[in-house]
Amino acid sequence: MEINGKHYRSVWLADDGTTVEILDQTKLPYELEIIQLTSMQLAATAIRDMWVRGAPLIGAVAAYGVALGMKHDPSDEHLQKCYDELIETRPTAINLKWALDRAFSLLQGTPTEQREKVAYTLAEEVADEDVKLCESIGDHGLELIKEIASKKPQGSVVNILTHCNAGWLATVDWGTAISPIYKAHEAGIKVHVWVDETRPRNQGLLTAFELSSHGVPHTLIADNAGGHLMQHGEVDLCIVGTDRTTAQGDVCNKIGTYLKALAAYDNNVPFYVALPSPTIDWTINDGLKEIPIEQRAGHEQSHVFGLDENGTRREVNTAPKGTECGNYAFDVTPAKYVTGLITERGVCDANHDALATMFSDLL
């Protein structure tokens, strides 16, 4: 997508054809910094320390990480090491395992002297596929926004609430939950986005950064404001992303998503979840019992970044000294609170039969 008129993907190969480049998302929206990944270990750090984040992007960077590993050492032992180190970086997002399983399976049957080339080709395929999947999600989600717009007085604005960042910064391009919004904006539909700040890492700032870059009207709100807006008819629909979706349609997304779903359910506001098929974990059914919830360092909860009066990016502590902080990164929204799932193949109900019908070839 665009930053100051220049097109970027969230991950790409440098001019040398082997170095992987990413945007350091821990510096956004205040600083635009490109980081070069030259080893599998750096790719693992990028995922673990959230230089990159978002389930689809994590999967793509993991695939590139394997390629970097094969460049260094294409042996069976090192292939296993790459898999083991990368799989431990983020436990909740299933796209990570999906990409690593795909790479591991392919490279196991590839002669060692060909593994580097094959791994880079696969990583490029994973990235390109994600772009196509996300654009298709946008096309199908656009139809939902069109339908809502058609029922409002002519010229009215469609108000959409989202949580966390599920735009192009969370994928390779386009995004999941934000892709339909980009499509609607380009189609001339008047849209306005309520952007949850999404504590504690404030990924809503990334969404605001994206929308601002594309001229999409939006308002950044405190996480707890969404229910109030729904009660007063200020939200026409919610669209969020997901890091893992069960075979029964439960969705696991950034902490706070469940509360938005409850508020939407209570106020008859449609609550949609946008996801590419690699985000579906067909091996589990009960999201509450079976999805591992990542718990991150308390420092992320007690400290925030911002700009001081001189425009310098600084970190400050907001918690009383000695306070213990709990930092649960995700929660699970049961399928019964999800109006529908927006996928690259269309919109379906959030249940096993609907998912199995739409993706029968993947079961």
Outline of the structure:
With 363 residues, the chain is α/β, with parallel strands linked by helices.
User: In the CATH classification, which architecture of the largest domain applies?
Assistant: 3-Layer(aba) Sandwich
Secondary-structure element pattern, one letter each:
EEEEEHHHHHEHEHEHEEEHEEHHEEEEEH
Strand content: 15-25%
How widely separated are the two ends? 33 Å
Family: Belongs to the EIF-2B alpha/beta/delta subunits family. MtnA subfamily.
EC number: 5.3.1.23
InterPro entries: IF-2B-related (IPR000649), IF-M1Pi (IPR005251), IF_2B-like_C (IPR042529), Initiation_fac_2B_a/b/d (IPR011559), M1Pi_N (IPR027363), NagB/RpiA_transferase-like (IPR037171)
Function: Catalyzes the interconversion of methylthioribose-1-phosphate (MTR-1-P) into methylthioribulose-1-phosphate (MTRu-1-P).
